[in-house]
Write a structure and sequence with these properties.
The protein has 520 residues and is of the alpha/beta class. The protein is built from 17 helices and 22 strands. The strands form 6 sheets. Strands 12-15-16-11-10-18-19 form a 7-stranded mixed beta sheet, sandwiched between helices. A 6-stranded mixed beta sheet has the order 7-6-5-8-9-21, with helices on both faces. Bound molecules: nicotinamide-adenine-dinucleotide.
Amino acid sequence: MTASQAQEPAQPRVPVRKTFTSLNPATGQPIASFPVCQGEDADMAVSRAREAARWWGGLGWRERRGRLLDWKSFLTQHMDELAQLMHEETGKPADDATLEIILAIVHVDWAARHARRVLGPRRVFSGIAAINQASTVEYQPLGVVGVIGPWNYPVFTPMGSIVYAIAAGNAVIFKPSELTPAVGEWLVRSFSQVAGRGAPQPVLQLLTGAAGTGAALAASGADKIAFTGSAATARKVMAIAAENLTPVIAECGGKDALIVDADADLNAAADAAAWGAMSNAGQTCVGIERVYVADPVYETFLAKLTDRVSRLHPGSDEKADYGPMTMPGQIDVISRHLADAVARGGRALPGRAEDAVDAPYVRPVILTDVPEDAAAVTEETFGPTITVRRVANLEEGIQLANASSYGLGSSVFTRSRRRARTAARELRSGMTAINSVIAFAMVPALPFGGVGESGFGRIHGADGLREFARAKAITSQWIKPPVNLTSFGRTDADLKRTVGLITLLHGRRGQGRRGRSREG
Ligand code: NAD
């Protein structure tokens, strides 16, 4: 160091912001760069969101509904632009991206229109013992909700949390997957432009980065974390959130089964299995990964499925049925599952399993004769592959379907309405589609979520709105009670009279089998 250098005043340190770049998975071309947000960014976002939440919550149901519906119109009018960006950042065909946006639009509409009915104040019957009280329940916003999203459905999936949380009156901080930050930014920007007019701070904020940024959001003291991703990451997020007692919703992976009964419409079942397994290159949490087919129709079903699958081709041209694998690392998982299945006696259709991978693309593979404890049956493959197994009947299909540690969605194909209903109830999954696949995701009034390794909590529908609100119970005494039980002035006679009344009302057996029940 020279003397003159030593005398120079110390320069203020300018923090060097790390950035990352999202890439087009088909071409490897860069799409856009974003900052790697850290703990201080998450903390700042939460303090901004607190102010935004007060403002947004204060707007009232009607105003929020109007603004959300304006955003819905904007999304509808700019569908092509968003679909193109999704195509570039995930590799999925633009038509599939459009379908995904349509689903999200339907949810914005439903959440906006039903938030007041589901969450607004509602009178409940106080009961004879508290007849002097007028009772109401209402659902208040939590405040600030952190949404951590995946890359496979970068619009539909996070919007299932974002839209319902905002409709419930919360402010949201959205951490999109590091593979799809540009799509996340598009959503946040469009909300601010259209629905966030006049806000002192943004109601929907963007926090970009990878695992460290997600961890910072989980640790930030947000009032709830809505996480979508793998079960392994969900465990990490929960451990961080536990420090602040922050509640978490975990929407995790799946290993969805489709069961084909002996009386099923085999054309419809084969068509649905092919699409359920291969669309979006199999990168679908509620994608079909296992098929169980009743013995009498096994060969016919397999022939029909093979015929359909052999006509599919991956690519990024306009005619491609599905695109590349969005996350390069997933190809290793798919290769491992295929190799293990073949090593353990599995048969691949329509081509050789060894030829399936042509990175970044994977050709569709049907695997038969794979043991039930092989990785291709037990682990989430998340690729355009499907296992097909012969079972004695529907009951055995249900038993094997339920043997999974996952339990997200499921499908059953049968012409018998009674058998379909019974199967749907017995299948250990959050959602079941009868004679179709994934239909439940298109019905905004239905709750969406899993059991076991597929996570817990529900997005969509009334349950989805309530996930982002806390129940507030209010009683209001409108007349003095004949007997004041909550007073030191209570006498023995008061208690005796009350016991007499309760015995009269509740002491007899067999009441449940007579008369009507009265609920709040
Ligand atoms: P992932 O678990 O790797 O990442 C999900 C998100 O968590 C990303 O935003 C990531 O940056 C963040 N993250 C990673 N490590 C973190 C950490 N330690 N702390 C906090 N955040 C962290 O999952 P993915 O590969 O992005 O998505 C694919 C998975 O998501 C599959 O298992 C799929 O089935 C599942 N998924 C589930 C649903 C559903 O609704 N149930 C929907 C879509 C996808």
